[in-house]
Amino acid sequence: MGFVEDTRVERVADGRWSTTIAPGWDIGGNANGGYLLAVVGRALAEAAERPDPVTLTAHFLRPGKPGPAAIVAERVKAGRRFATVAGRLESDGGAIVQALATFGDLASADPGPERVSASPPDLPPPDACPRNAADDALAKSFMHQVDLRLHPDDVGFRRGAPSGEPRVRGWFRFADDAPIDTLALLLAVDAFPPTIFNARLPVGWVPTLELTAHVRARPEPGWLRCAFATRFVTGGFLEEDGELWDERGRLVAQSRQLALVPRARAAGA
Amino acid sequence: MGFVEDTRVERVADGRWSTTIAPGWDIGGNANGGYLLAVVGRALAEAAERPDPVTLTAHFLRPGKPGPAAIVAERVKAGRRFATVAGRLESDGGAIVQALATFGDLASADPGPERVSASPPDLPPPDACPRNAADDALAKSFMHQVDLRLHPDDVGFRRGAPSGEPRVRGWFRFADDAPIDTLALLLAVDAFPPTIFNARLPVGWVPTLELTAHVRARPEPGWLRCAFATRFVTGGFLEEDGELWDERGRLVAQSRQLALVPRARAAGA
């Protein structure tokens, strides 16, 4: 199956959709967070009656296991250009993701004045960047869905030699080269390995509390250039800021997530 | 009155609070967005039964006019350390702010490893920074509640000479020097003039669609050092990223908002 099929939702009642958390998008048995965002986003887009998630926030409440699930959503306000919706992905086990989003139609956007003081990350061509973790026992199934090519300077963590910079840069596309629409951008903002893996800190895993994505434009066909970085590991939290650019060099999405910094698995570290 | 009194909420039923959008916190008749966040935040904190808004997202649906209002809120999940709540500020006129937040107790946080690759903004002392807009006809009442001292390099927009950099840096405290708790940080992240006023772009006002604040720590008493910047004005949108530091040089909050870039008031600009 592919991204569109595996994120399908079906309206079963007013404000209620059924779906299936598909197998094959998990990391160690739990569905990837970005995949869950895309599933929720697809139902919220229907609730909003607008195609593009201009800004979407999700709070992650518990892991999503493959199997039947439902989305409940409410349209809070519909204006001329935008509609705001609130909703939740849940299964028999309880609420998985709570979301709040404003949707619009980016095809009809009136750009107005533009000013950009940033550049896409400087990446070697995809073929010169190692593919991420297709052989990783935990991430294997997810990494067969997406094709991530990491900047050679940012892959040291895989062999126990983190770069020391909490940063991950790379290329993103679907493994089957399916088109990347604005719902797929919700997946892409949470598809890369955690930046913190490249810091020299005693940190094991980083559960995401919250992720907000701003979608600025519909991507042109082709690879996305992506960069994720962390500047503040403080107070038991870290943020991870993402930028996604399309092949025409246009920013298509920004993301920021707040994650917990758990102690390392080693006792007393 | 002061911040605490003017953001008071009263639980009137299960999941429902009454409040008053107080006069004196408005800009041109509409309550400041950060003030509304603090009002909503206070009710959500009660719903969460946790004091600190670790991450709070608000979508701004319509202006808040002074007068009676209500907050409806639902606790979506309560875990050991955090509780996630969703809620809405509304008045007779309809929904004003829709919010989603996760609360915790930052006093009991286990910091774990720390790593910061950023510094507080370099600001002249408060007395060497001009106070913002106490004489501005529109912002006058709000600017009597807060004491903003802007970096001298960032005030040019006031006299029609924007710096050219979409950036605003300055000091924040309450005019009555009331303590700044973590709910007050929600006000502080949206108290400064828009960064875009310092860009040389034909932009009049910038309505905020969405704002997310991450509260990292309870501030020490004293001034906050604040910095707001915009890197992407594209597709009719701009983001504004904020960092707030306390007097001990500790990051206490990060914020990002997504705002619309309306065309200038001049026709056909």
Task: Characterise this structure.
- The structure is a homodimer of 269-residue chains.
- With 269 residues, chain A is mainly beta.
- Chain A has 4 helices and 16 strands.
- In chain A, the strands form 2 sheets. In chain A, strands 1, 2, 5, 6, 7, 8, 10, 11, 12, 13, 14, 15 and 16 form a 13-stranded antiparallel sheet that branches. In chain A, strands 3-4 form a two-stranded antiparallel sheet.
- In chain A, strand 7 and strand 8 form a beta hairpin.
- In chain A, helix 2 (33-48) runs antiparallel to helix 4 (182-188).
Using brief descriptors, characterize the structure shown.
13-stranded antiparallel β-sheet, 4 helices, 269 residues, mainly beta, two-stranded antiparallel sheet, homodimer, 40% strand
List the helices and strands and how they pair.
Two copies of one chain form a homodimer.
Chain A: H1 3-6, E1 9-13, E2 16-21, E3 26-27, E4 30-31, H2 33-48, E5 52-60, E6 67-78, E7 83-91, E8 94-104, E9 115-116, H3 140-145, E10 146-150, E11 167-174, H4 182-188, E12 208-215, E13 224-229, E14 232-234, E15 237-245, E16 251-260
Antiparallel strand pairs in A: 1-2, 2-6, 3-4, 5-8, 5-12, 6-7, 7-8, 10-11, 11-13, 12-16, 13-15, 14-15, 15-16
Summarize the structure.
The structure is a homodimer of 269-residue chains. The first copy, chain A, is built from 4 helices and 16 strands.
The level of helicity of chain A is: 10-25%
Shape of chain A: globular
- Which chains share the greatest interface? A-B, 56 and 56 residues
Structural class of chain A: mainly beta
Sheet with the most strands of chain A? 13 strands, antiparallel
- Gyration radius from CA atoms of chain A, angstroms: 18 Å
Number of helices in the DSSP assignment of chain A: 4
